């Protein structure tokens, strides 16, 4: 009980720390990138937080898998460094007995990763695609780039702005060429803003400007105004074709398409790889003081990269038809499990001693 409480507490604290660091790094990078796009008009300001939320949901299974691997690795490396493992071994605690408290920590997280991989991530992908399609149809002034002519989605309004005022839908020194009800007009204005009526119609409102209106092709009329509104027509948002990662898991299971089956194997492999990698971290954390403390960290990193990249390559080979869909990614998981058994047997001094220990445990039960 003491062994389990100490390990669970340390694993939980390490996992929280690793997850917070990963989220801080990723969120900072995303905030800087997306707010930079909003500052130059490539993305609406009110869409930044929503975009970050969708991206976070899509990446969360990977973040949690990395968190589990690093937290287990850190906990056991610390125990080996402080010679705590030798004390536990002297007290009769075998290496295999550490799997039970680690599994108590891993199982709830694996359930969360499974739910994210099977349901939450595809759902977030579908919402993200619809949201991006709606953003493509917006004609906010905040999406305009200063110094560049922009054609409104309706096609009957072309406007040019010299400067943006802040990050909102306001601009200064605006040029507008519009075609409405058979009448063509050119307007210049000191300021412009965008307003939306209750029925959803959008208007480009110009303040303190002049309108040069064509009368019969040869004559023009000059009109000075304090405020002038031009209606911007919008297109209907169409449902974009679903990406592979956005297809519901049930639909993938019922499909006979090779690409769908490859995606299904990938989603199944996400929680399996998270569990296997976290268990691999237990023997990978052990080190020989004579060989240096950094080598096991390098080897653990290589094992993680090879395992994850093998799953990615295996999925690509399935899509190309070079890997059996019936086998899928299971051979890769099988090799990882065999490596785990080999590493654990090495801690016992060999495979016969490891099998003997398992047999003794089974007989004692």
From TrEMBL:
Highest rank taxon of the organism: Bacteria
Pfam family, one: LptF_LptG
TM stretches of this protein: 12-32, 52-77, 98-120, 264-285, 297-317, 323-345
Membrane topology recorded in Swiss-Prot or TrEMBL: Multi-pass membrane protein
InterPro entries listed in its UniProt record: LptF, LptG/LptF_permease
Keywords: Cell inner membrane, Cell membrane, Membrane, Transmembrane, Transmembrane helix, Transport
Protein location: Cell inner membrane
Tagged with keyword Iron-sulfur: no
Keyword Transmembrane part of the UniProt annotation: yes
PANTHER family, per database record: LIPOPOLYSACCHARIDE EXPORT SYSTEM PERMEASE PROTEIN LPTF, SLR0882 PROTEIN-RELATED
Record protein name field: Lipopolysaccharide export system permease protein LptF
Lineage: Bacteria, Pseudomonadati, Pseudomonadota, Betaproteobacteria, Neisseriales
């Amino acid at each position: 009980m003491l062994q389990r409480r100490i390990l669970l507490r340390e694993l939980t604290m390490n996992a929280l720390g690793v997850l917070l660091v990963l989220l801080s790094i990723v969120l900072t990078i995303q905030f800087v990138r997306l707010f930079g796009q909003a500052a130059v008009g490539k993305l609406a300001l009110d869409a930044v937080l929503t975009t970050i939320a969708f991206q976070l949901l899509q990446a969360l299974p990977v973040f949690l898998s990395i968190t589990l691997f690093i937290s287990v690795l850190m906990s056991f490396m610390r125990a080996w460094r402080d010679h705590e493992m030798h004390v536990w071994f002297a007290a009769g605690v075998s290496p295999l007995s550490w799997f039970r408290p680690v599994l108590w920590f891993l199982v709830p997280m694996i359930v969360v990763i499974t739910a994210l991989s099977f349901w939450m991530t595809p759902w977030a992908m579908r919402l993200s695609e619809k949201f991006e399609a709606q953003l493509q149809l917006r004609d906010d002034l905040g999406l305009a780039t200063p110094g560049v002519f922009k054609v409104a989605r309706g096609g009957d309004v072309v406007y040019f702005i010299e400067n943006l005022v802040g990050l909102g839908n306001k601009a200064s020194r605006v040029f507008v060429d519009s075609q409405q009800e058979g009448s063509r007009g050119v307007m210049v204005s000191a300021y412009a803003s965008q307003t939306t009526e209750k029925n959803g119609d959008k208007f480009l409102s110009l303040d303190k400007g002049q309108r040069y209106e064509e009368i019969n092709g040869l004559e023009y009329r000059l009109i000075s105004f304090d405020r002038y509104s031009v209606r911007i027509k919008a297109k209907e948002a169409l449902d974009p074709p679903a990406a592979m990662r956005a297809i519901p898991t049930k639909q993938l299971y019922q499909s006979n398409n090779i690409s769908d089956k490859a995606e299904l194997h990938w989603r199944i492999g996400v929680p399996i790889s998270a569990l296997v990698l976290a268990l691999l971290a237990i023997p990978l954390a052990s080190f020989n003081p004579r060989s240096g403390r950094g080598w096991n960290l390098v080897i653990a990193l290589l094992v993680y990269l090879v395992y994850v990249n093998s799953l990615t390559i295996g999925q690509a080979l399935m899509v190309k038809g070079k890997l059996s869909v019936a086998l899928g990614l299971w051979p890769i998981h099988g090799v990882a499990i065999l490596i785990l058994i080999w590493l654990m047997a090495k801690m016992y001094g060999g495979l016969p001693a490891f099998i003997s220990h398992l047999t003794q445990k089974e007989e004692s039960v």
